[in-house]
From TrEMBL:
The gene is glyA. This is Serine hydroxymethyltransferase. It comes from Candidatus Staskawiczbacteria bacterium RIFOXYB1_FULL_37_44. NCBIfam families: PRK00011.1. Residues 3-386 form the Serine hydroxymethyltransferase-like domain. The modification N6-(pyridoxal phosphate)lysine is found at residue 225.
Length: 414
C-alpha cells in the first residue's frame, strides 16, 4: 500500500505485469512462478545489510542472524542435493560459473563446453563471453542427425585438448544427460567436470532427472528456474570433487568472495533457503514429475499436429520446435504466440541454416504452467492453440481472449 502512494508509476507497472502473468501462459522453460513465501523473504528487511565474508568470518558487524540464515540455507542445499559443500552466495548463474572457472583454472587454460547454438550456455565457452576471452575454449556439439550430445566427439576433443575443466549443461537440450559417461570422459583426461544444472535443478531435486552428483566434481545452478526460487545461484562441491581436490570447497568459496563478488544479497539467500525447504517436500516431488509428464504430453500432441521436435520429443521440462516445415521463423512465431498470450522464445536449432536473430525454432517448457496446476489435458488444449496461431497468426487476437478466460481456472501461486 505504501508503494501506490509513494511511486504510482512503479506500482502501476507491477500491477500491469501481474495482470499479464495472470492472463497468459508463461512457457519460457527457464521461467517459473515463485511462491508468496519466497517473495516475502526476498522483499524483506534483509536487503538492508552488507554481509561480506561467510558465517563466522564476516567483515561487517551486526550479522548474527545473517550467519544463522546462511548456515541454514547451506545445510538445506547440502541435504537436498546430497553434497558435502554448498555456496549460496552467487548472484545468479553466470557469476556462479565465473567462480567455478576461477576456482579451478588459470587464465589461458583450456576449457570445454557445449556450443551455444547446440543448446549450451554463453558461460560454457561461447566466443563473445568471458569464458572464451580469458580461457582457450573448445566447444563440443550435438549429433547432426539425432541432435543428441555427441559423446564420441566430446571424448575425442577432450583427449586431444586435455581441458582443465569441462562444463556440461544446457539451455535448450530436451534430453537426459548421461552423467556416468560424462564422468568417465572427464576422468580419462584428468579434467574437472562441472554440471550446470540451472535448467533442471528442480527436476534433480524432485527426482525427475538423474542427479549428476555421483559423477561430477562441481555442480552450479540458478535457483529460479525449475527449482522455483528467487533469482539467484549456488555452487556445490561433491564427494568426488573433494576427493579430487580436498581444498575444492575452499577454492570455490574464495572464488565467489573475495574473488568475484562483494557482499552477498542476503535477502536473496533467505529466499533461496525458503525455496530449498519447499523443494524438499513430497508436493515438490509431485510437481517435478508433473512438469515432465506435461512436457511429454505437449510434445506428443504437437507431433500429432505436424510439428517437428528436435530429438523427436523430450525427457525434461522443455521442447525445441523446428518450424521450418511451418513456413514461419522462430521470431515471427514468438511474436504471434505472445500476441495470443503464450510466451515462448525464438531459439536456434542445432545446425540452424538461419541467423540467430531470425532462427528456425522456438523453445518452450512447462515449469510455470505446471506450477499453476495444469495437467496433460490442458497440454492438449495449448498445443491446439499453438497450431492455430502458428498456421494463422491472424487468429492470435481471438485466441488471446480464450486463453485469458482459460487462465482464470489456474491462478498464480497465492
Ligand atoms: N537465460 C537462461 C535461459 O533462458 O535459458 C539461461 O541462463
Amino acid at each position: 500500500m505504501k508503494l501506490k502512494k509513494q511511486d504510482s508509476q512503479i506500482y502501476k507497472l507491477i500491477n500491469l505485469e501481474t495482470e499479464r502473468q495472470k492472463t497468459s501462459l508463461e512457457m519460457i522453460p527457464s521461467e517459473n512462478h515463485s511462491s508468496p513465501a519466497v517473495r516475502e523473504a526476498l522483499g524483506s528487511i534483509l536487503t538492508d545489510k552488507y554481509a561480506e565474508g561467510y558465517p563466522g568470518k564476516r567483515y561487517y558487524a551486526g550479522l548474527k542472524y545473517y550467519d544463522i540464515l546462511e548456515d541454514l540455507c547451506r545445510e538445506r542445499a547440502k541435504k537436498l542435493f546430497k553434497v558435502p559443500h554448498a555456496n549460496v552466495q552467487p548472484y545468479s548463474g553466470s557469476p556462479a560459473n565465473a567462480a567455478v572457472y576461477m576456482a579451478v583454472c588459470e587464465p589461458g587454460d583450456t576449457v570445454m563446453g557445449l556450443a551455444l547454438p547446440m543448446g549450451g550456455h554463453l558461460t560454457h565457452g561461447w566466443k563473445v563471453n568471458f569464458s572464451a576471452k580469458f580461457f582457450k575454449s573448445v566447444q563440443y556439439g550435438v549429433d547432426e542427425k539425432t541432435h543428441l550430445i555427441n559423446y564420441e566427439e566430446m571424448e575425442k576433443l577432450a583427449k586431444e585438448n586435455k581441458p582443465k575443466l569441462i562444463f556440461v549443461g544446457a539451455t535448450a537440450y530436451p534430453r537426459i544427460f548421461d552423467w556416468k559417461r560424462l564422468g568417465e570422459i572427464a576422468d580419462s583426461t584428468g579434467a574437472y567436470l562441472a554440471a550446470d544444472i540451472a535448467h533442471i535443478a528442480g527436476l534433480v531435486a524432485g527426482g525427475a532427472h538423474p542427479s549428476p552428483v555421483p559423477y561430477v566434481h562441481i555442480v552450479s545452478t540458478t535457483t529460479h528456474k525449475t527449482l522455483r526460487g528467487p533469482r539467484g545461484g549456488m555452487i556445490m562441491v561433491t564427494e568426488k570433487g573433494m576427493k579430487k581436490d580436498p581444498e575444492l570447497d575452499k577454492k570455490i568459496d574464495k572464488a565467489i568472495f573475495p574473488g568475484f563478488q562483494g557482499g552477498p544479497h542476503m535477502h536473496q539467500v533467505a529466499a533461496i533457503a525458503v525455496c530449498l525447504k519447499e523443494a524438499a517436500t513430497p508436493a515438490f516431488k509431485k510437481y517435478a514429475a508433473q512438469i515432465v509428464k506435461n512436457s511429454k504430453a505437449l510434445a506428443e500432441e504437437l507431433k500429432k499436429l505436424g510439428f517437428n521436435l528436435i530429438t523427436c520429443g523430450t525427457d525434461n521440462h522443455l521442447l525445441l520446435i523446428d518450424l521450418r516445415n511451418k513456413n514461419i521463423s522462430g521470431s515471427d512465431a514468438q511474436i504471434a504466440l505472445e500476441e495470443a498470450g503464450i510466451t515462448t522464445n525464438k531459439n536456434t536449432i542445432p545446425y540452424d541454416p538461419n541467423p540467430p536473430f531470425k532462427p528456425s525454432g522456438i523453445r518452450l517448457g512447462t515449469p510455470a504452467i505446471t506450477t499453476r496446476g495444469m495437467k496433460e489435458k490442458e497440454m492438449q488444449k495449448i498445443a491446439g492453440w499453438m497450431r492455430e496461431v502458428i498456421s494463422n497468426p491472424k487468429s492470435a487476437k481471438r485466441v488471446r481472449k480464450e486463453i485469458a478466460s482459460f487462465c482464470k481456472k489456474f491462478p498464480l501461486p497465492r
